[in-house]
Automatic annotation (TrEMBL):
UniProt keyword annotation of Kinase present: no
Keywords: Oxidoreductase
Identification of the protein by name: Pyridoxamine 5'-phosphate oxidase
Chain ranges of the Pyridoxamine 5'-phosphate oxidase N-terminal domain: 22-134
UniProt key word Oxidoreductase: yes
Molecular function as annotated in GO: coenzyme F420 binding; oxidoreductase activity, acting on the CH-CH group of donors
Gene3D superfamilies per record: Electron Transport, Fmn-binding Protein, Chain A
Species for this entry: Streptomyces tendae
One Pfam family matching this protein: PNPOx_N
Amino acid sequence: MQVTEITRRTAAQRRRDTLDRLSTERDVWLSTAHPEHGPHQVPLWFLWDGRAVWMCTSASSASARNVREEPRVRLSLPDTFDVVSLQGEAEAYPASEVPDEAADAFADKFGWDPRRERGSFLYLRVEPATVRAWRGEPELRGRVVMREGVWLA
């Protein structure tokens, strides 16, 4: 195993890097919980619109069921070294009610439009209240880059 030195980024650089990853990456882990069924975690495609994360899932999925009961969720990008973790509340939109701008951007990004599918789909929108970002142990201190919906740098 090759060890590389980690350079501690400034808060402003962490914010820029986080926004870049949110704008360019494809997958996010969505973690939900239900009072009776417990926690549930699933990877989903996502779109960052500059303020919020948009995802889409089957209207009958465990994720959809859970956010109807408990809207508080956590999202994580899939890199365990370059961590980006978001926390917020999910708003659910049936495919027929999702704003066209978000649904069109989602379809453009992935080449798939859930509004045109036979099954029933639910779009989930999460505007983060808290964002944490860090690369390795040297960046654990100061890892909160957004608090109460406000970027700190």
